[in-house]
# Entry
Amino acid sequence: MKFINKKVILFDLDGTLINSAPDLAVAVNHMLKSLNRDTFSQEVIHNWVGNGALTLVKRALSGSTEIDESLDDEVIKQATDIFMNFYSKNLCNTTVAYDNVRTTLETLKIRGYKLAIVTNKPFAFVAPILNGLSLDGLFELILGGDSLPTKKPDPEPLLFVSKKLNTPVEHCVMVGDSKNDILAANSCGMDSIGVTYGYNYGEDMQVHNPTFVVSDFGEILELL
# Structure
């Protein structure tokens, strides 16, 4: 099976186009050290990525995917400021694009698809990372987690892209690595592709009913 009549492809960023976990882990541990708290391995922090910077900070302070609701607001603010300041200066030290990402995006562009990014990552971080990885210039539109009042799994960012690019939802596809991407797509009736290699908290991607699942980014070309 293949998609038909698709015109716009929306992509998540972290865990879908890029592996940013190493740089995020360094920034998280820098924040924790600054607050005299225990640090964690990259593997542990990997499981906290995907819901935006604030949630990542709260999970780190909690030492768990489950956020401690008793965390002090002032501590959260201080920790977030430390994290954001450090990470903004260390966005692309070890972050890399996943295999076949650039060539696949370029091929989709050549085929006439409009490409967009819908990420929960703060908007200010996205362009510098794309520039650093030579992925700039490929996207018609970029939405960060703070670009709109809501973020994934809310469908609003996907609907915004559909409207902004003047393309009905049924002619769009959302590509992502986590349930946030697939749930957002399902909520607005958009087809989706789940990738198995990203940050899905150890869950089987199939559980959330994406239209298709791929294990290599390059396989997307076979579906379009």
Q: What stands out?
A: The radius of gyration is 17 Å. The chain has two domains: 8-19+95-222, 21-88.
